[in-house]
Write a structure and sequence with these properties.
Keywords: Cell cycle, Cell division. With 298 residues, the chain is an all-alpha fold. It is 56% helix and 3% strand. The chain contains 16 helices and 2 strands. A hairpin with an 8-residue loop joins strand 1 and strand 2.
Length: 298
């Protein structure tokens, strides 16, 4: 696994756009190999009458990953700073944002955001990287009106993934005026329909109850030191023998401030009301009527 990650990391660390693109493709290929089954279990897809059947690898469901040797090796490597893919992608994204003010790196930025989403879903403990303001500052920067709608939409989705089950990240996001950025973009007449749709989804997500299911990672994570991450109690934690009961236990209490303190829906409603007065009640009414996110508010 290290031999696959090493050339990808070298390319991602380059100042050349072409090499960065190659590095992103290499990471994408690695994640695809982990998420797709090998040639031993192909599935055939009949494309058109008369066309030859093409063999395509079947996607693995989440439960299948726990027994996959490649995924087990990947997950373990993510526990350390040296091979943590999310950290490398965030560093590359920061470079692209700083150098890509003229739009020359827009596609690479979108690709990097998509890969960050995937890595955070495969290795949830990496989400704690966003507890650092240096990383949490990136999403608000990418939501600025100067950026194209594709970047803004991808940023909102990435933000949801980074904040999901991570109240400590949510508090950092709020402290950095991230909610002000979201609501300002929502109110702007210049914001396109697709982006406004994503923003509405984000507000729905923000107003759902907080359930911290990922244990706080070791403090060394915040400094980027070795021993970066701890296990996750999610389904993926079955790789290391399962931690579901521990995760349930974590949900029973409310953490202290600065350590992932959760807020109630009413408290978050007050925050949104500061920026979008009169809108929150309609959003909550929609949540009650249409029950997105599995109807967690009912």
């Amino acid at each position: 696994m290290e031999t696959l990650l090493s050339p990808a990391f070298d390319n991602l660390s380059s100042f050349d756009g072409g090499k960065i693109k190659k590095g992103l493709k290499q990471v994408e290929g690695l994640l695809a190999q982990i998420c797709l089954s090998g040639p031993s279990s192909p599935r055939k897809q009949h494309l058109q009458p008369g066309a030859a059947d093409r063999e395509q690898p079947a996607r693995k469901v989440l439960a299948d990953l726990s027994g996959d040797p490649a995924f087990r090796e990947f997950f373990k490597l993510q526990e350390g700073f040296e091979w943590n893919v999310a950290q490398r992608l965030l560093t590359t994204l920061d470079f692209l944002v700083v150098r890509g003010g003229d739009g020359q790196y827009d596609l690479l930025i979108v690709n990097a955001l998509d890969l960050i989403q995937g890595v955070l879903l495969l290795h949830p403990p990496s989400k704690v990287l966003f507890a650092r303001s240096v990383h949490m500052n990136l999403p608000p920067d990418l939501l600025e009106p100067i950026n194209c709608p594709a970047i803004q939409s991808a940023t909102i989705i990435t933000l949801v993934v980074a904040l999901l089950d991570m109240p400590q990240n949510m508090r950092v996001f709020e402290q950095l005026d991230g909610l002000l950025t979201i609501t300002s973009l929502f109110k702007s007449r210049e914001t396109g329909r697709e982006v406004k749709f994503r923003l509405t989804e984000f507000l729905y997500f923000y107003l759902t109850p907080e359930t911290p299911s990922i244990p706080r990672a070791d403090a060394r994570l915040a400094t980027g030191a070795p021993g970066l991450l701890q296990r996750s109690p999610s389904k993926l934690a079955k790789v290391f023998g399962g931690a579901g009961n521990e995760g349930k236990g974590e949900r029973q209490g409310t953490a202290t401030a600065g350590d992932g303190m959760t807020l109630s829906v009413e408290e978050k409603k007050e925050y949104v009301d500061r920026y979008l007065p009169g809108v929150v009640d309609e959003l909550l009414k929609d949540l009650d009527t249409y029950k997105p996110f599995g109807g967690v508010l009912s």
